[in-house]
Amino acid sequence: MALLHQLCRRAVLELGSSGACVTVAGSAGIDVIAWSDENAKALEDLQFVLGEGPTGDAFRVAQPVLVSDLAAVGNRWLQFASAARSRGVGGVYSFPLQVGAVRSGVLTVYCRTGESLDESRLRECSRMADSIRDSLLGALDTTDGAREISGSMPLRTVVYQAQGMVMVALDVSLADALSRLRALAYSEGLDLNDLAAELVSGRRRMPTRDQGAQ
Amino acid sequence: MISTARLTEVFVELADSLVADFDVVDFLQDLTDRAAEASQADAVGLVLADHQGRLQFMAASNESGQALELFQLQTEQGPCVDCFRDRSAVVNADLSNAIELWPQFAPQALEAGFQSVHAFPMRLRDQTIGALNLFGTRPLRFAAAEARVVQALADVATIAILQQRVLARAEALTEQLQGALNSRIAIEQAKGAIAQREHITPDEAFIRMRARARSERRPLLEVAAEALGAPPVS
Predict the structure, then answer these.
(1) What's the pTM value of the predicted model, to 2 decimals?
(2) Residue-wise over A72-92: b if at least 16 C-beta within 10 A, else e?
(3) Is B169–A147 a contact, with Cβ atoms under 8 angstroms apart?
(4) Which of A88, A202, B114, B203 counts the highest number of beta carbons within 10 A?
């Protein structure tokens, strides 16, 4: 969605941040719909891969999740905080795109270590979230809008395919299958995307029931 | 005009009904009842414009109110028609002096026993969505302060309705997006499930899904959903 991508890039410029992404919630978790650059997109994907992070939290609690220093989040998002910090991220600010109780997605803004958003930039961010929300709804409010927009989203097809495979192989629910994949990736120090690719291509055998079990 | 204490309660009651399970018809019914109570009008009616800008009857405090509204809409004349068109209130109108203005409506209303009429626009900034009508069987005169109270009731209702429309639209559009996205996801998950079950690649699984959908004349998504819900082969 070209307009949303532009708005993400504008968010980066006007806020002096390092990246911005817009995500929406699907049945398997958050999916990226627009991004300012590849690094921001990779950070958002990291939240999905690890199954934790401010974007998902902001969507779930329908409130902004504002972190000015990832080093000070204590036990929250242990894996994501450490991985993001090692990529030079210091602050993360997630704003739900919502009208009343209706949540359409999340805008997440990333800042480099040592940089953060002050009060007035946070207010600006909140306004941008509303404007992005309105642009998204406006784009959906056209014939076939939903199908075109969802069709243009990059989908982690390999992970979803692996999810289906594990669901059958281990006789568990889809949600459990994804958890198992994440746990297995973590225990072997693999990226979820890479693990999924290995399973789908047949280069690696399906996990057994005890592997990756919680 | 009712007491300030009761009026405060009326506004709180109206606000309360905006919270959960908002039903626009119930809400507007309540509003006409409250407006009748607050103003001591003998009949209150409310009309809203549909998405093509045509006024439709929505609620009334009693049958007379309903009849008066319907008659205005049928004849396309009357205080609520003028009020909506001009986006301004009609206050303290004496029906016996309004025969030239509303040649069909005024005599009918007089015959039904009404003498005075007021209409308040349901308006927020540049949007006028309808009108609230008050009728008296005796000369019902509002001082400026009383007219403001009734206008405030109309304003609260307008805000509620407009907000509800915004929410309903956002909800519908978001559901469409999620539905479309989830369909794509389900198809990928089903490719994996079928691949695992039938010992083929996901691409081959997709070919089989499409063939199945075609031969069984079912939507692809249905074939996918079935693959995800079916028990696995051990």
Answers:
(1) 0.85
(2) eeeeebebbbebbeeeebbbb
(3) no
(4) B114
Strands (E), A47-185: 65-67, 89-99, 102-112
- Could you give the domains of chain B? 4-165 (3.30.450.40), 171-229 (1.10.10.10)
Cβ A185 vs Cβ A175: under 8 Å: no
Q: Do A169 and B186 touch (CB under 8 A)?
A: no
Q: Do B167 and A99 touch (CB under 8 A)?
A: yes
Domain over A2-152 is classified CATH 3.30.450.40: yes
Cα separation, A31 vs A108, in Å, equals: 12
Of the candidates B171, B180, B201, the beta carbon closest to that of A150 is on B180
Q: Which residues of A touch B197 (CB under 8 A)?
A: 168
Q: Which of A59, A150, A171, A181 to mutate to test the interface with B (most CBs of B within 10 A)?
A: A150
pLDDT tens figures, A172-197: 999 999 999 999 999 999 999 999 99
**Least CB-CB distance to B177: which of A146, A162, A169?**
A146
pLDDT tens digits for range A120-169: 999 999 999 999 999 999 999 999 999 999 999 999 999 999 999 999 99
The C-alpha atoms of residue B28 and residue A143 are separated, in whole angstroms, by 32
Q: How far apart are CA B29 and CA B17, in angstroms?
A: 12
Q: Which residues of B120-132 are buried (b: 16+ CB within 10 A; e: fewer)?
A: bbbbeeeebbbbb
Sorted by where each begins, the domain ranges of chain A are: 2-152, 157-201
